[in-house]
Design a protein that fits this description.
This protein has about 240 residues and is an alpha+beta fold. It has a single domain, classed as Alpha-Beta Complex (paralog of FGE (formylglycine-generating enzyme)). The protein contains four helices and nine strands, in the order E-E-E-E-H-H-H-E-H-E-E-E-E. The strands form three sheets. Strands 7-6-5-8 form a four-stranded mixed sheet. Strands 1-4-9 form a three-stranded antiparallel sheet, covered by helices on one side. The chain starts with a strand and ends in a 14-residue tail after the last strand.
């Protein structure tokens, strides 16, 4: 896992898309505004999306049904290091819990994707994605994890390869009312938030740090996977230490 420092950052989209200001068009892309300063606690995040081989150990140990495309419940040979797909939100949450972790909040995911530079569109800056930077705009499916350049924190495939489940329920207007300290999303909803874009997505807007997508929790898709996080446990200082020579 990779350590992600806590702190304050500007969450949301700070730039316009060509059709953002069209008054007659009920643009769903406005759900990643307004930009607001929020603060998250430090945490650890999986450096890569959960692979088939990791998920297979979980499925065997817990007797959970493997992804439906695994022939006879087995990983296709040569795809052990590819990210697992066709997992529901419940599957993803159960896997993370089994490893002693959890799904990231939407705020944690964006913090991890952005790095420490404010306002840019992608983890690497404002230039559009390339085949060197992300897996996108292809019909060949996801690639093995960490096949592209890592982001500022050393995380793989935060943009492209697969959409990633987050812990949050989706609410189009959540940014307007969210708390500024460690927001955890609405208390309820119909959809769960997805982040990061996938191998199938072509328009650059789907691949930005701020873009929000969503899916029903029961959905299983070849474009959706997961990664887990774990909270940082802060130890209290021993008061006796100050008395030591």
């Amino acid at each position: 896992m990779v350590f992600i420092p806590g702190g304050e950052f500007s969450r949301g989209r700070s730039y316009d898309w060509p059709d953002t200001r069209l008054a007659w068009y009920p643009n769903p892309l406005k759900d990643d505004t307004p930009v607001r300063k929020i603060c998250v606690n430090p945490f650890y995040m999986d450096e890569a999306e959960v692979t088939n081989e990791r998920y297979a150990v979980f499925a065997k140990a817990t007797r959970r049904k493997p992804p439906y495309h695994w022939f006879k419940g087995e990983i296709q040979k040569g795809r052990e290091k590819h990210p697992v797909v066709n997992v529901s939100w419940d599957d993803a949450a159960a896997f993370c819990g089994w490893e002693g972790k959890r799904l990231p909040t939407e705020a944690e995911w964006e913090r991890a994707s952005r790095g420490l530079v404010e306002g840019r569109m992608y983890p690497w800056g404002d230039s559009n994605p390339t085949a060197k930077l992300a897996v996108y705009g292809t019909d060949a499916g996801a690639e093995a994890v960490c096949s592209k350049e890592r982001n500022y924190f050393g995380l793989c495939d935060m943009i492209g390869n697969l959409w990633e489940w987050t812990a949050d329920w989706y609410d189009r207007n959540y940014y307007e009312v969210a708390p500024t300290r460690d927001p955890h999303g609405p208390a309820q909803g119909i959809y769960r938030v997805l982040r990061g874009g996938s191998w199938f997505d072509q328009p650059p807007l789907f691949l930005t740090c701020s873009y929000r997508s969503w899916a029903r929790p029961a959905e299983r898709s070849p474009t959706v996977g997961l990664r887990c996080v774990r909270a940082v446990t802060l130890r209290k200082a021993d008061p006796r230490a100050a008395l030591s020579p």
